Amino acid sequence: MKKSTLIEIISVLMALLWAYAACSKLVHYETFKGQLNNSPFLYFVSGLLAIAVPLIEIGIALLLMINNTRVKGLYLSVILLSLFIIYIIAILNFAPRIPCSCGGLIQALGWKGHIFFNLFFIIIGIIAIKLSGDKENRAYPTKLNSIS
């Protein structure tokens, strides 16, 4: 399989993930906002996050679908998924009570399942970033590379 094809497949998978996650949060906005409000760490910014998170997810999905911004979308995907994992680990280890992990089709995973789900997407995101970097390095050789 060509590197560019693999990068596109990963980008589409991640774009679908973000689009689905954003739509789920927006369709069930009151539930999502309530879940954030019940979070022991996020309740004080729940109103802001209830709007910002789905908008960021939509933005990342769009970046992933445009060739010129795909790598930025991949980096942002890895960063946001990593932040979600940090939040989950903090909830599991430091929260006085563990709130519901409800949300969309993957709600049956539970908190630990979400960690592995997110890790999978982080790994394929890093693979796509690495493949994109290899592709860019060959497409735009530096003076040092062109001398040899």
Q: What features would you describe in this structure?
A:
The chain has 148 residues and is mainly alpha-helical. The protein has one domain. Helices cover 77% and strands 0% of the residues. Helix 3 packs antiparallel against helix 4. The C terminus is likely disordered.
SSE pattern: HHHHHH
Structural class category: mainly alpha
Distance between the termini: 29 Å
Integer count of domains: 1
Rg result: 18 Å
Total number of helical segments?
6
Estimated share of beta-strand residues: under 5%
The rough form would be described as globular
Helix fraction bin: over 70%
* Strands, total number: 0
Report the biggest beta sheet as strand number plus sense, adding barrel if it closes.
Answer: none
Mean pLDDT: 87
Which residues sit in consecutive blocks of at least 5 with pLDDT less than 50? 137-148
